[in-house]
Amino acid sequence: MGRSGLRLRLAGVWLSVVVCAAVFAPLISPQDPLAQDLFLERLPPFWIDGAEPGHPLGTDSLGRDVLSRLIHGSRIALTVAILAGLAACLAGSAVGLAAGFLGGWTDRVVGRVIDVWMSFPPVLFAILLVAVLGTGLHSVIIAIAVIDWTRFARVVRAETLGQTRMDYVASAVVAGRGRFGILAAEVLPNVLPLIVALLSLEMGIAVIVEAILSFVNLSISSDAPTWGGMIAEGRTQIHFAWWVLVFPMIALFLTVLALTQFGEGLRDRFDPVFR
């Protein structure tokens, strides 16, 4: 097994853990993530003196179980990653394929729109959109999709332009195949591995953006367990309860890294050029 296969498997293992945690959160959480008990505030993790058996990763300043909030926070992170990532992928890839394959004025117009759209700082643009749309999970998903479709459009457009100059496309034209048939049967299969890698990367970016919005209290309810909200809370008590900050940061880092590496591994596995 090469480095690509090892990378793909390790990323797949961690993502499987996160998906299982999100799906079975009510069953595997040791405590209610919203339950508060000030008598149990800032309990340390299980390996430190003073820990409680029912709170393996400790509690926060309100006595809420850190592990339970991590598990339930994975639900929000994955929901945003999947829905926002797919929305941006479908919209951006369709625009990029059309611009790259048709060329001409279509390509010029799309290129100008992408340049203007990408000139806005993405995080500030997301905060502005959520502020206009109102806080909530649906607003976060819409904001990420509206901002990041250009990421797919730009890369897919460039790749499609390259593929249309290949000999196999010229052969399909000579054979009398229609434009849509050439795009669907010849160009798209060769661009698809790149789209898959971009989708995985976009899902990681969506997780980060949702955490940022949660950090500034622009995602969902401040009481809801989100990794960004836990990081914001832990930042204020790092000297008293470091575990409230460290564990969600680790979960966020590993999830984003796994999504990125998983996409790269899939591209190496299925891209005909790499094969």
- How many runs of DSSP E, i.e. beta strands? 0
- Quickly count the domains: 1
| Count of helix runs | 10
Shape: elongated
Query: Stretches where pLDDT falls below 50 for ≥5 residues?
Result: none
Distance between the termini: 14 Å
The helix content is: over 70%
CATH class: Mainly Alpha
- Supply the CATH superfamily name: MetI-like
Oligomerization status of the protein chains: single chain
Secondary-structure-derived class = mainly alpha
Tell me what you see in this structure.
This protein has about 280 residues and is an all-alpha fold. It has one domain: MetI-like (MetI-like fold), CATH 1.10.3720.10. It is about 70% helix and about 0% strand. The protein has 10 helices and no strands. It has helices at about 5-25, 25-30, 65-100, 105-115, 120-135, 135-165, 165-175, 180-215, 225-235, 245-270. It starts with a helix and ends in a 5-residue tail after the last helix. The model has no long low-confidence stretch (mean pLDDT about 85).
